[in-house]
Write a structure and sequence with these properties.
281 residues, alpha+beta, 6-stranded mixed sheet, two-stranded parallel sheet, 10 strands, 19% strand
Length: 281
């Protein structure tokens, strides 16, 4: 269905896909929530819209929690922007007194929707539960930020934690966001069986993607990815936005809290701090 909808196929295939879903549900007598069908039906029946992030940046949203915000475009070819909020509700600033930011890519190599495994980073709320170092050669040795979605089957957290996260998910949202379906993508991605979306650096050679809108960032299998440059005669790390992000989280108190990935609009350019500043109080 997603391949049929690619390249503006919604007007042609909308009714066919809706009809086929209804037939499957009727024939299988399915009564439980089908996360794939729920997301797909919302995509077909509800108009694309974007909410101002004002209420998400209020101190009353997830009070007393450290939050990693990742502001993204709908078109994930364009890098987003990561910022860190402390437990007091203030955003971390750098040594010059400016708000801390690093570019962050939320695009997978497949560029498929976030509820599909190996698709783009799902939009919504994640529980953030610490740092780790990956053994994967494409992620590299810089500490990564561990995250989990509602209902996710995780090797690092008991099922009771992710089940409870799913049960309380709606209550975590501001009242104005409870009926905004895009913010529930992590909820349904977890139900659909998606796992292991984290925030990490990269050892992938950015030159593979030279000329693309997200260069010198590199796509992943669906994680949040920050720029890292490696090289020289010894192959050591030369530059790391991921380390800067880890440092910012440590300055906020650590990587235990929440990560919120949110699409702010569909402009065809990287997200800029000046677009976020009007919403920060």
């Amino acid at each position: 269905s997603e391949y049929l909808l690619a390249n503006n196929g919604k007007p042609v295939f909308k009714e066919l896909i809706l009809k086929r879903m209804d037939e499957i549900i009727l024939n299988t007598k399915e009564t439980s929530i089908n996360p794939f069908f729920t997301v797909l039906r919302n995509k077909l029946l509800l108009a694309d819209n974007f909410k101002p992030v004002t209420d998400l940046l209020e101190k009353s949203f997830l009070p007393g929690e450290i939050i990693l915000f990742s502001f993204q475009r709908k078109n994930r070819n364009y890098p987003g922007l990561a910022m860190v909020r402390t437990k007091t509700g203030n955003f971390i600033k750098d040594s010059s007194g400016n708000y801390f930011t690093v570019p962050q890519l939320a695009r997978s190599i497949t560029n498929m929707p976030g509820y599909i495994s190996n698709g783009n980073t799902a939009q919504g709320i994640y529980k953030m539960f610490g740092f780790a170092v990956s053994s994967g050669i494409f992620i590299g040795p810089t500490p990564n930020i561990q995250m989990v979605m509602p209902f996710e089957k995780s090797e690092d957290l008991p099922d009771s934690v992710t089940l409870n996260f799913g049960d309380v998910y709606e209550s975590l949202l501001p009242a104005s966001w409870k009926n905004y379906y895009p913010i529930y993508e992590t909820y349904y991605a977890g139900l659909a069986g998606r796992t292991e979306i984290i925030a990490h650096g990269t050892t992938v050679n950015p030159e593979y993607y030279k000329g693309l809108p997200y260069y010198p960032l590199t796509p992943t299998q669906g994680c949040l990815c920050s720029k890292e440059i490696w090289g020289g005669s010894n192959g050591k790390r030369l530059e790391s936005d991921q380390q800067k992000l880890v440092n910012a989280l440590n300055a906020a108190g650590g990587a235990k809290g929440y990560c919120v990935v949110i699409e702010i609009d569909d402009k065809q350019k990287p997200v800029d701090l000046q677009e976020i500043l009007p919403y920060i109080k």
